[in-house]
Design goal:
The chain has about 70 residues and is an all-alpha fold. The chain is built from four helices and no strands. The protein is extended and about 50 Å long.
């Protein structure tokens, strides 16, 4: 696929799909080795979000706030 074809295809993607691509591009600028397992995990996350839906960010924040492991 040529660069022009890729750029044209970007216009057809949803905002969520564009975020995924941005995330993959961001990884290229870090000292992180992109492994086949990592790409498989990203693909599984995309499949899960598409087929099982997503969780509103407010619910995620509430859930994370319950993860405090410090004793009172």
């Amino acid at each position: 696929m040529s660069m022009n074809e890729i750029l044209a295809e970007l216009d057809t993607l949803s905002p969520d799909e564009l975020k995924i691509i941005q995330g993959k591009l961001d990884l290229l600028h870090e000292d992180i080795e992109i492994t086949p397992e990592m790409l498989a995990a990203i693909d599984e996350g995309r499949r899960s979000a598409r087929e099982e839906g997503t969780i509103p960010i407010e619910d995620v924040i509430k859930e994370i706030s319950t993860w405090n492991t410090k004793s009172p």
